[in-house]
Amino acid sequence: MSETKGLIFYVEDEKDLSEMVTLYLEKEGYSVNHFFSGEAFLDKIFSQHPDLILLDLMLPGIDGMELCRYLKRDPELKKVPIIILTAKDDPIDVVLGLETGADDYIVKPFHPRELLARIKSVLRRSLSEPITDHSFYKIGSLVLNADSLTLTIGEDCIPLSWKEYRILEFLTKNKGKIVSRDQILNYAWGTDEFITDRSVDVYIANIRKKLGQHGERIVTVRGAGYKFDAE
């Protein structure tokens, strides 16, 4: 048996769609394990870790959003990239999906070629940007830890999503400099994803809340982008 391009776990309760996607991806050289429910998926995920997860949101029993949150809280499974596939196309749903820690969000109906391109992009990025045990970054009283995806302020340890971490890391590493929304998008999402500027604004608002009194250090520069001020 020839070596596959990667193992994909696919959670989808629509039979026709799941069969089409599975056959297409297998034809492209991937190994696909399909699950009709979140419960069936959870029975398998701890014994065999996939390279990527395709996750529908509207599932019977445990829904996809809760599954995504659960996976991103697990020390081992949080490193597995997730692409959400769903009929929910409202911009708020997209942002919420990404906020849970998903790496990409594809709205149904979609073309298999688009899905394949997104899979390749996410897998390429996950391999080139591993989370290591030495991923501490300190700026003043703030400490970012990429391994645990946390922000420490004094005695407070605040959980971050991967995208929140990447955005805050980029802002702090460019302390005092104005960075555009496009620069933030490229750093946090990469150039292959289809994400709007509005997503950046929503994430910045969430990060400010988590920073508490330090939130005002992220300054909006009208018409230009954002700037992280020194203490």
Automatic annotation (TrEMBL):
Residues 7-123 form the Response regulatory domain. The modification 4-aspartylphosphate is found at D56. Residues 134-230 bind DNA. GO terms for molecular function: phosphorelay response regulator activity; transcription cis-regulatory region binding. SMART domains: REC, Trans_reg_C. Gene3D superfamilies: 3.40.50.2300, 6.10.250.690, Winged helix-like DNA-binding domain superfamily/Winged helix DNA-binding domain (1.10.10.10). Residues 134-230 form the OmpR/PhoB-type domain. The keyword Cell membrane does not apply. Keywords: DNA-binding, Phosphoprotein, Transcription, Transcription regulation, Two-component regulatory system. The keyword Metal-binding does not apply. Pfam families: Response_reg, Trans_reg_C. GO terms for biological process: regulation of DNA-templated transcription. GO terms for cellular component: cytosol; protein-DNA complex. This is Phosphate regulon transcriptional regulatory protein PhoB. It comes from Atribacter laminatus.
